[in-house]
C-alpha cells in the first residue's frame, strides 16, 4: 500500500515546501495538490477571501525540489484550462521531476470560483462530455507524435506535444464518484482512479469501475485505485475525543494503534494508495510532527 501527503493550498509556500520535502526524505510515496483559486463557499457562489496557491505552479516548484515523490494535481479542474495546454504542462513537469508526474483530471465542481472568473461550470452532462473529450485529447497528445481531434467541444489539428514526457506512459488519474459517466471515462482512459470514500464505499465504487471496464473489454486490474480521508491522529486521548464522531464518513480518528486498524480496512477493501490531507492537523509545526507519527507508527505497518 502506498501513502501520499496532500498539503492544503492555504499554507504558505515555505511551509508547503518544507512539509513535502520532509515526506520525500522520510520515504512517502507521493504528494498531491488541489486545483482551486479560493476557499469554497459551501452555501453558494460568493467569492471568498483566503490565500490559495495555484496548483500547477506549486507542482512545478515541488518537482524541482524533491527527489522521489510522485507528484500530481488532485485533481485538475478540466474547465479551467484547454486540454492541449494541460498536456504540454504535464509533459514539462514530468521533465522537471525526472519522470514522477501523475496527471489528475476531473470535471470540476466548485461553484464560486467558476462564477468569479466567468468560467461556465455547465450542467453535469456537458461537464462530463468536456471531460471525456479532454481525456482523449490529452492522452493522444502525450502518447502520439501528432494529434488531430474533432469533437463537440475541442478541435485539435495536427498538433504536436514536444518533448514527450520522460515516462513512456505518463499516468492519467481520473477523479470522481459518478457511476454512470465518471466511471466510464475512467474505464476508457485512466491509469488510476480516485475518490473520497470510506472503506465500504470504496469497495462498492471500485466494483462499479470493474463493471465499466468489463463492458468495454478492459482488464480492471490495469487501473490503480486511491482514496483519502481526513486525519485526526494523536496520542492525546482528550484531544481525540473532540474529533470522534459518527461512522460512515471518510475520517480517520485515533491513536496510532487504532489508525493502523482503520487504514487496514482500506487496504482490505482494495485501496492501492491512501492520501493524507494535512488540513486537519494544525500549523506547519504540528503537521510535521503528525505526518512523521503517521509514517512511523501507522504506514510502516501497512506497506
In short:
With 303 residues, this protein is of the alpha/beta class. The protein has helices at 13-26, 55-65, 83-97, 111-116, 124-143, 182-189, 199-215, 237-241, 256-269, 284-297; strands at residues 2-6, 30-33, 70-73, 76-77, 103-106, 146-150, 155-160, 172-175, 192-194, 224-228, 230-233, 251-254, 273-277.
**How do the helices and strands follow one another from N- to C-terminus?**
EHEHEEHEHHEEEHEHEEHEHEH
Spell out the CATH superfamily of the domain at 6-175: Luciferase-like domain
As a percent range, the share of strand residues is 15-25%
Oligomer state equals single chain
Query: What is the name of the CATH topology of the domain at 6-175?
Result: TIM Barrel
Rg, Å, rounded: 19 Å
Q: Level of helix content?
A: 40-55%
Q: Which shape, going by the Cα principal axes?
A: globular
Describe this entry's structure for a reader.
This protein has 303 residues and is α/β, with parallel strands linked by helices. It has a domain at 6-175: TIM Barrel (Alpha-Beta Barrel). 41% of the residues lie in helices and 18% in strands. The protein is built from 10 helices and 13 strands. The protein has helices at residues 13-26, 55-65, 83-97, 111-116, 124-143, 182-189, 199-215, 237-241, 256-269, 284-297, and strands at 2-6, 30-33, 70-73, 76-77, 103-106, 146-150, 155-160, 172-175, 192-194, 224-228, 230-233, 251-254, 273-277. The strands form 3 sheets. Strands 3-2-1-13-10-9-8-5-4 form a 9-stranded parallel β-sheet. Strand 4, helix 3 (83-97) and strand 5 form a beta-alpha-beta unit. Helix 1 (13-26) runs parallel beside helix 10 (284-297), helix 3 crosses helix 5 (124-143) and helix 7 runs parallel beside helix 9. The model has no long low-confidence stretch (mean pLDDT 97).
Amino acid at each position: 500500500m502506498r501513502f501520499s501527503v496532500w498539503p492544503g493550498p492555504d499554507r504558505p509556500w515555505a511551509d508547503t515546501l518544507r512539509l513535502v520535502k520532509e515526506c520525500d526524505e522520510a520515504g512517502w510515496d507521493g504528494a498531491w495538490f488541489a486545483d482551486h483559486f479560493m476557499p469554497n463557499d459551501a452555501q453558494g457562489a460568493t467569492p471568498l477571501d483566503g490565500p490559495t496557491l495555484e496548483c500547477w505552479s506549486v507542482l512545478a516548484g515541488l518537482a524541482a525540489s524533491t527527489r522521489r515523490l510522485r507528484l500530481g494535481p488532485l485533481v485538475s479542474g478540466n474547465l479551467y484550462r484547454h486540454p492541449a495546454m494541460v498536456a504540454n504542462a504535464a509533459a514539462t513537469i514530468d521533465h522537471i521531476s525526472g519522470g514522477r508526474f501523475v496527471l489528475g483530471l476531473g470535471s470540476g465542481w466548485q461553484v464560486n470560483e467558476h462564477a468569479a472568473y466567468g468560467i461556465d461550470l455547465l450542467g453535469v452532462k456537458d461537464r462530463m462530455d468536456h471531460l471525456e473529450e479532454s481525456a482523449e485529447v490529452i492522452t493522444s497528445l502525450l502518447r502520439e507524435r501528432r494529434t488531430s481531434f474533432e469533437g463537440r467541444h475541442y478541435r485539435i489539428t495536427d498538433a504536436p506535444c514536444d518533448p514527450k514526457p520522460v515516462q513512456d506512459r505518463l499516468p492519467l488519474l481520473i477523479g470522481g464518484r459518478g457511476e454512470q459517466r465518471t466511471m466510464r471515462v475512467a474505464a476508457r482512459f485512466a491509469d488510476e482512479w480516485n475518490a473520497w470514500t470510506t472503506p465500504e464505499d470504496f469497495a462498492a465504487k471500485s466494483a462499479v469501475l470493474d463493471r465499466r471496464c468489463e463492458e468495454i473489454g478492459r482488464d480492471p486490474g490495469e487501473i490503480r485505485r486511491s482514496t483519502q480521508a481526513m486525519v485526526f491522529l494523536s496520542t492525546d486521548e482528550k484531544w481525540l475525543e473532540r474529533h470522534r464522531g459518527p461512522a460512515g464518513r471518510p475520517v480517520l480518528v485515533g491513536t496510532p494503534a487504532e489508525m493502523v486498524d482503520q487504514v487496514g480496512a482500506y487496504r482490505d477493501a482494495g485501496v492501492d494508495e491512501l492520501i493524507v490531507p494535512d488540513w486537519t492537523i494544525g500549523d506547519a509545526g504540528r503537521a510535521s510532527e503528525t505526518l512523521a507519527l503517521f509514517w512511523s507508527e501507522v504506514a510502516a505497518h501497512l506497506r
